Amino acid sequence: MLDLGLSKMALIGVVALMVIGPEKLPRVARTVGTLLGKAQRYVNDVKAEVNRSMELDELRKMKDTVESAARDVESSVSSAASDFEKQWEEATSTASTALSEPPGFPEYKHPKKKWRLKQGAMPHWYKARNGVRTKALSGAARVARYRPQKFN
């Protein structure tokens, strides 16, 4: 680039003052300043575009490497799955020939009798002492229980 020091800038200013004149010099300086600003913005835009294109190329390369790695993993998983399916077919075919009848299993029975009643963290003796309901009552049973007794 140009090496403009303070002495060269002063020389350019003096020559411009003589050539242009003191009346028009501020307007020319403003115009030159705006043109230099526009040129700097244009150069910065070009640099940014070049940087974006370089980053885009890097991202494309990274995308290609990731896609190739994904294809390799997919092929290894599919080959492992096919090997597993073959081994499973061999194991099930030998097991089905070895066992003519499956063993009889007893029918599943839930371990608790009253499995519909939820059990809380409060112990039964505490509920009984404080009068907490432990059994669900139907509406009719509740009315019959809490109906006032008639005195004869």
From TrEMBL:
Q: What does this protein do?
A: Part of the twin-arginine translocation (Tat) system that transports large folded proteins containing a characteristic twin-arginine motif in their signal peptide across membranes. Together with TatC, TatB is part of a receptor directly interacting with Tat signal peptides. TatB may form an oligomeric binding site that transiently accommodates folded Tat precursor proteins before their translocation.
Kindly indicate whether the keyword Cell division belongs to this entry.
no
The yes or no answer to whether the keyword Transport is present is yes
Q: Of which family is this protein a member?
A: Belongs to the TatB family.
What subunit structure does UniProt give? The Tat system comprises two distinct complexes: a TatABC complex, containing multiple copies of TatA, TatB and TatC subunits, and a separate TatA complex, containing only TatA subunits. Substrates initially bind to the TatABC complex, which probably triggers association of the separate TatA complex to form the active translocon.
InterPro entries associated with the record: TatA/B/E (IPR003369), TatB (IPR018448)
Q: Where is this region: Disordered?
A: 74-111
Its membrane topology, per UniProt?
Answer: Single-pass membrane protein
Protein's UniProt name: Sec-independent protein translocase protein TatB
Starting at the broadest rank, the lineage of the source organism is: Bacteria, Pseudomonadati, Pseudomonadota, Betaproteobacteria, Burkholderiales
Gene behind this protein:
tatB
Where in or outside the cell is it found?
Answer: Cell membrane; Membrane
Question: Where along the chain is composition biased (Polar residues)?
Answer: 90-99
Record keywords = Cell inner membrane, Cell membrane, Membrane, Protein transport, Translocation, Transmembrane, Transmembrane helix, Transport
Please classify the protein's predominant subcellular localization into one broad category.
membrane
